[in-house]
Protein 1
Amino acid sequence: EVQLVESGGGLVQPGGSLRLSCAASGLTFSDSWMHWVRQGPGKGLVWVSRFRADGSASTYADSVRGRFTISRDTARNTLYLQMNSLRAEDTAIYYCAGGGSYRLNNWGQGTLVTVSS
Amino acid sequence: QSVLTQPPSVSAAPGQKVTISCSGSSSNIGSNYVSWYQQLPGTAPKLLIYENNKRPSGIPDRFSGSKSGTSATLGITGVQTGDEADYFCGTWDTSLSAVVFGGGTKLTVL
C-alpha cells in the first residue's frame, strides 16, 4: 500500500521560507513522477511542481517558478518543496502526490501553509 | 480562473444518474488523457478515473469517464449519499507545460 505523509507546514511571514517534506512508502521513486499540488481555503486544486521519475528534470507552475524548488532524496524516499519569498497567496494545503507524468495516482493527507504577518 | 471549465455544482437524488462535464482546448484535453479525482469533505483527493475512461482498482463501475474532442465527462450511476464530494478533472496542457485542473464540481445528493 502506498503511503505519502507530508510535514513541514506552518505559519510564516510574507517573504519568509519554509521547506515541506513528503515521506513515501510503498512506491519506488525511480518509477514514479512526484508532484506537489496545493488547494487554497475553499478553492480548487492547483498544480505546483513535479519531479521526473528518472530524476532528470523538474517542472514548475508559472506562479512559483523562481521561488520554489522541488527535490528528492532517493535514499530517504522523501520528496521536498523548498518555498522562498512566500506570499499571502501561497496560503494553502499542500499535497504530495505520486504517479505518472500528469496522472496523480496516490495523494498524501496534506500539510497547511499559512503566510501571514 | 481554471484552465478547464466545470459546472460549480450538480445534484441528483439517490439512485439516479449524474454527469459532470469538463471543457478544455486543443492544447490540453484535445491532445492528452483526462483524469478525474474525487475529494470527499475534509479529505485529500483520490484518483477516480484515468486515461479518459479507466478505473483504478477498487473504484466501483458506477463511475465512468469519456472524452470527445476537447471535452470530457464523468458519469455516476446509482448515486449514493456517500458520493457527495467535489470532483475535479485534470490533464496536461502542452502549451503551458503544466498539469491543469478544472475548478471542481460539488455533487449534492438530494
Note: The mean pLDDT of chain A is 96.
Protein 2
Amino acid sequence: DIVMTQSPLSLPVTPGEPASISCRSSQSLLHSNGYNYFDWYLQKPGQSPQLLIYLGSYRASGVPDRFSGSGSGKDFTLKISRVEPEDFGVYYCMQVLQPPYTFGQGTKLEIK
Amino acid sequence: EVQLVESGGGLVQPGGSLRLSCVASGFTFSSNAMNWVRQAPGKGLEWVSYIGSSGSDIYYADSVKGRFIVSRDNAKNSLYLQMNSLTAEDTAVYYCVRPYNGAFDPWGQGTMVTVSS
C-alpha cells in the first residue's frame, strides 16, 4: 500500500500570513500519462471534505487562487498565500493512483 | 448540480449488519465509478471500497474485506454498502464519493454508523 505522510500535523497561523503543508508518498504518484494522481482536501469543522487541488496542481472549481499545489512524483506541497478565516480546518492529502487509495494523517490549520 | 445523498446509518450491535445507500443526481451515474470513504469520530479519512461503472471492478480496504459488499443499481442511480460482522472499529461517518478528474468530488453529507451494545 502507498503510505502518505503529511507535515506538520498542526499548523498555527495568523490570518493574513502564508501557510505551507507538505505531503510525501512512499512511491511515485506520477502516471505514465504525465499526471500526478494526488489531491488536497479541506475539511472544515462539522462539514464533509471538499476538494481543493486535483492531479497535483489543478485548483478545483470555486477554489480561491490563494491556494496552490505543487510537486511531482513523491513530494507535494500545498501553499496558501494569505490565510483567511474560512481556511481553518483539517487538510488531507490523498493518492488516487491505485487502490487502496490512501490519505495523509491530516494537518490541522489553527488560528494563532 | 451534482449531489450524493447517503442514508441507512444508525446504531447496530457488534456482530450485526447494516446496509447503506447513496442516491446520486446531476450526473450520468451509470458512466461513473464510485467509492465509499469513512471517518471514525475524531479521526482521519479512510477509503473503504471502489466499484466500477458497470459493477465488474470492485476493490476493498483490507480492514473490511470479506465483511463488506459494495454494489450499485444504475437504473436507480444508487450505490450500496452491505456491512456485515460489524465491530466497534467500524463506527464512523460513511461518505459516498464520485471519482472525477483524478479526485473525489463531490462528497455527500455522510451517514453515521455506530456499533455498540
Note: Chain A touches chain B at residues 35, 37, 39, 41, 43, 48-51, 54-55, 58, 60, 92, 94, 96, 99-106 (CB under 8 Å).
